[in-house]
Amino acid sequence: MIESVALLMVGFSLGAAVLLALAGATVYADMQPPPLARVAGWVLLATLAALQLAHGRALLQPGEVPVSTSYVAGLYVAVAAFLLFFRGALQPRESERPWHVLVLAPVGLAWVLPAAIGVPLAFAGGVACAAWLAVLAHRLRAQRRRFRLERGVFVAHALIALLVLLVGLASPWIGLHAFRVTYAILIGAGLFAALYLLLRFPDLPARAAEAVATAYAVSTLTRVDREAALLRLRRVMEEDKAWLDENLSLAALAARVGLTPHQLSELINTQFDHGFARYVRGYRVEAARRMLLDEPTASVLSVGLAVGFTSQSTFYAAFREITGQVPGRYRRDQAGAADRKPT
Predict the structure, then answer these.
(1) Is 184 strand, coil or helix?
(2) Measured distance CA(216)–CA(309) in Å, rounded
(3) Left (φ > 0), alpha (ψ -120 to 50) or beta: where does 221 sit?
(4) pLDDT digit string (tens) for 122-175?
(5) Rounded distance between C-alpha atoms, residue 132 and residue 32, angstroms
């Protein structure tokens, strides 16, 4: 039974890796992470898919299948890619130094060490990398009130990574078969969590990037008239209704306000205690609330698209985040309250 679950996770992982790669190349292409981190992300997905293929082939063969040198090398590549990708996400300004590629050097150990030593050593290196990333993530603690979800996501994936590391370190004692089964399931669980979160919270990468930028930012508003900038921002949002543009970006809004993107991001964070994406969602949800009640025959999807959301999933997620209800339930509750109000 457990082997069937592992094989199911292998198949799912291959499809999930393709979907995540496509999302990175299309929906999230404009996020522009550091080049090294971007390449590391592609390599990480490709390596996890290759490892899962190896797990699937081994589980389908009878008997104990020995670990190949290429498999051990894949473990080292996955650890290095994991480190480079998340370091680029957590500390973008420091992630482009050339010496960072030296984390790939241990890959050569796969060809000189026996598997019984190479596999646990690869996961021991993963423990060290995870500890380093945890130190970087700790710098986001000042943003915990505004970015609870992003920190929760990191913690959840860190726990999955910790389980993977423990399984890898225990491989000499639990046996290769149990190691492959458990590792295949955990990789599938991690990819499932990533896909679910992107579908449930499509703007999560942008919000996480904003949390990092805020945590490391040096004030860019020392020579800016904040009150005048706020007046311009409110005029653009409330009179010009810039939020109706479904492709509105931080850079585009900053240009209309007369600030740099960094200045506008800091202004919104310091004045409204949340980031750019949440700020824009607030205007759209408020307009949607009025439209849901003023136009009772309009479909929920048409309301969401009319106020600037690009899909039903993003509309539902934003509306629930701000009001605590989904749009249809909000409309029904408000209509019921109006009916019960005495004339």
Answers:
(1) helix
(2) 29
(3) alpha
(4) 877 777 777 777 676 666 655 545 555 555 666 666 676 677 777 777 777 778
(5) 23
CB of 23 closer than 8 Å to CB of 202: no
3 state SS of 203: coil
CA distance 79 to 161: 10
**Distance in angstroms (rounded) separating the CA atoms of residues 307 and 55:** 47
Cβ count within 10 A of residue 124: 14
88 versus 331: the higher-pLDDT residue is 331
The Cα–Cα gap between 343 and 339 comes to 9
The predicted pLDDT at position 92 comes to 61
Distance between CA atoms of residues 271 and 267, nearest Å: 6
Amino acid code (one letter) for 132:
W
User: Which DSSP letter does residue 107 get?
Assistant: G
Can you read off the two tokens belonging to residue 330? 């909000």
SS3 labels along 272-327: HCCCHHHHHHHHHHHHHHHHHHHCCCCCHHHHHHHCCCCCHHHHHHHHHHHHCCCH
How much is the average pLDDT of 49-69? 88
Q: Distances from the Cα of 303 to the Cαs of 76, 259, 331, in angstroms?
A: 49, 31, 12
Closest CA to 78 of 114, 104, 110, 116: 104
**How far, in Å, CA of 32 to CA of 98, rounded?**
19
Where do the domains of the chain lie, and which CATH numbers do they carry? 2-212 (1.20.1070), 220-340 (1.10.10.60)
Q: Could you tell me the pLDDT band of residue 50, with boundaries at 50, 70 and 90?
A: very high
Average pLDDT, the chain: 81
> What confidence tens digit (pLDDT) does each residue in 62-79 have?
777 888 888 888 888 888
